[in-house]
Amino acid sequence: MAPELSLAKISEMPLDVAAHLAAVEDSAAGAVATFIGKVRDHDPEVDGVVQFLEYEAHPDAETFLIDIAQRVMGDHPVRLAVSHRIGRLEVGDLAVVVAVSSPHRALAFDVCRDVIETIKADLPIWKRQTDTTGEASWKGIGPS
C-alpha cells in the first residue's frame, strides 16, 4: 500500500463522511480510523450556550491543508481523506472530517490523530462563535 492523499478540501458545502470513507477504501487496508469534528451546543471555556459558528479561511487554506496531510502521511502506507468546512455552521453540523486507512490499526489511529492535531495548530482557519444572547467571540486567534 503506497501513501495516497485521496481527498483534501476546504468546502462551504456540508461534509460527507461516506465520501471520505470511500476515498480511503483499499483492499490492502485492515483498518480505517476516522475523526469527525462537530459543532457542539456549549463552550466550556466561557460557560455559554453556542447558537452557531462561522468559519473563515485564508485564501490559501486548501494548499495548507494539502501540505499538512502530505507532511503527516510521509512515507507511511496510508490513504488519507480530509476536509474542513467554512461558512456558517449550526449545532450538530460537521466542521472537519478525517479518514485514514492503513494495513494496521495503530498506524491509522496515529496518522488520524496527527492530522487533526496539526490542522488545529497550523491550518489558517478561524471561527467566530455566537452564543444564544447574540454575543460573538473569535476563537483560534493568537496563542493558545
TrEMBL record:
EC number, UniProt record: 2.8.1.12
Pfam families (alphabetical): MoaE (PF02391)
Gene3D superfamilies for this protein: Molybdopterin biosynthesis MoaE subunit
UniProt-listed CDD domains: MoaE (cd00756)
Keywords: Transferase
GO molecular function: molybdopterin synthase activity
Annotated SUPFAM superfamilies: Molybdopterin synthase subunit MoaE
The protein, known as: Molybdopterin synthase catalytic subunit
Species in which this protein is naturally found: Aeromicrobium panaciterrae
